[in-house]
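From: lab user (bench 3)
To: helpdesk
Subject: output format question, protein + magnesium ion

Hello, I'm new to running complex predictions and I'm not sure whether the block I got back is the full result or only part of it. Here's what I submitted:
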Amino acid sequence: MAIQWYPGHMHKASKEMTEALPQVNLLVEVLDARIPYSSSNPFIQTLCTDKPRIKLLTKLDLADPAITKQWQRYFEQQNNTKSMALDLLNTDPSGQIIDLINKLYPPQTERNTLAMVTGIPNVGKSTLINCLAGKHIANTGDEPAITKGQQRINLRNGIMLLDTPGILWPKIDHPNSSYRLATTGAIKDTAMSYKDVAYFAAEFCLAQYPKLLKNRFNLSELPQTETELLEIIGKQRGCLRGGNRIDFERASTIFINELRDGKLGQMTLETPEVIDIEIQQVAVMKAEKEEREKHRLEEKAARKRKTKANRR
Ligand SMILES: Nc1nc2c(ncn2[C@@H]2O[C@H](COP(=O)(O)OP(=O)(O)OP(=O)(O)O)[C@@H](O)[C@H]2O)c(=O)[nH]1
Ligand SMILES: [Mg+2]
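Helpdesk reply: Thanks, we reran it on our side. This is the complete output you should expect:
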């Protein structure tokens, strides 16, 4: 089942972002380099499409380098858009980002350039702002929904930044996207089941990154199933319950946290090719749902007609 997380503060933040738009000159959209498609909020895509946009792929250090290059090429083809990949924990790309902002929106003498920093929760927006400001201004943390309200930061170089809370959208269409968001840490723990997410991530890793699994968990043979993999992890990490049974919930939490922290190695969960495939799958799912609903309503109407006829 798909995971959905859209608490009230995100709805409020989306409204406040729309209200701030008239003053905004440029959009800095922060995406997670491990899930550049699933971390693209469709609501943010509709914001000021006529204004220049910088797509920054953060957590470069955790992503598969070859796939990051594919994504950068993909984003550079988009109108009025520049893209850059960043490792904000180990490098300081502030000079390059400021140059990019000034290139896309040349500085005006009479007023600061207002750049709105947007993105999903936990993607690194506040870390980016602290990096650009050269000091700790915005609170950061390794969990979603740290920033709860907008904040303006004057960089004193002609650029004003607008930090915004991480937002998701009311309905994530494809279950894969919600699982990828949960795998990378954009969904609050209380809105997901680690076990469900671990099954999704295990299936993905077994298919796409078998070598990383073998290395991390010292496996000579690759397990055949997700359950087998989680059993091995559970045994190795001492996740046992009474009767020596595996505690799958604990094994799943450990697996997901190690994956998020990059302990398995650099991984990207989707390539640009996934987009068209999953858009088509969503269209099929929607058509099937409509068909089921039509059928349900027809049956309901038939039942009503029958009851009426019986009463006569
Ligand atoms: N490995 C890695 N971690 C990063 C990078 N950038 C940010 N982080 C970490 O990601 C976590 C979230 O960072 P924040 O800056 O708080 O994210 P945010 O987008 O402001 O999150 P919200 O305010 O909750 O929406 C923190 O633990 C950061 O240290 C990066 O490039 N690489
Ligand atoms: Mg923040």
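A quick orientation on your result: Strands lie at 26-32, 53-58, 81-85, 113-119, 151-154, 159-163, 240-241, 245-246. Let us know if anything else is unclear.
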